[in-house]
Amino acid sequence: MLPFVKFGLSLFLLSSLWCALSVTAAPLRRVRPSDATWPSVTEWEKLKKNVGGRLWPVKDPLSACRKNTKSKACFEALSLMKNPFYVQEQPGGTELSGWFKAWDSSLSRYVVEARTTQDVVAAINFARTKNLRLVVKGGAHSYLGQSNAPDSLLLWTKNMNKITLHNAFTPHDCPGKPVPAATIEAAADGMSKGEDAPQWAWQDLFKQGGLESSPNGGG
Q1: In angstroms, rounded to a whole number, what is the distance separating the alpha carbons of residues 23 and 5?
Q2: 3-state secondary structure of 2
Q3: Pairing label, strands 179-184, 163-169
Q4: How much is the pTM?
Q5: Under a CB-based contact definition with an 8 Å cutoff, are residues 146 and 102 in contact?
Q6: Domain 41-156 indexed as CATH 1.10.3730.10
Q7: Percentage helix, strand, coil, to 5, in the chain?
Q8: Which portions of the chain are predicted below pLDDT 50?
Q9: Which of 112, 140, 139, 137 is nearest to 126 (CA)?
């Protein structure tokens, strides 16, 4: 084959590949409430039933300030938001209000207060099949804003906070002497509040903690 024919064939293949990549690289867009494919009331009710009734719209903890920044209700709301333990108890609460030119704290549309693995599975499956934004929140500690997104479904794991200690644990298919271990659920945060500290002390175990109250076991 002549050199210029090879060169022309190479350009053709490159241009074809570029076109294919351009088509497949289209940005992913999640469904929003204004879209016709947004889940119906019946579909939301079905999800609510699947998670034991623990599904509801997310309330804005600063709604009073959005109406009137000089109102008494606004000052009270701002005062409450200074308490990290209060923020943790609000589905719409975040550790920060945002980062300049990076992200703003935004309300999810609905929240699932997960308490079991089945709740987590139901929420994730619903978000996937309905093409919804899904965010996960434990103690609302995310400084990068990953625990909130506008018009999303919020998977709230704050009540999945059990810690189970095991005196003798052997990993599956791993030979060797059993060792002490712990099963820590997604939002286990006992060390910062002192709830499980005696358990760890009695077992001569060490659990890394922090100065903030909002990080959970995974953080």
Answers
A1: 27
A2: coil
A3: antiparallel
A4: 0.73
A5: no
A6: no
A7: 35, 15, 50
A8: 2, 4-9, 191-198, 201-202
A9: 112
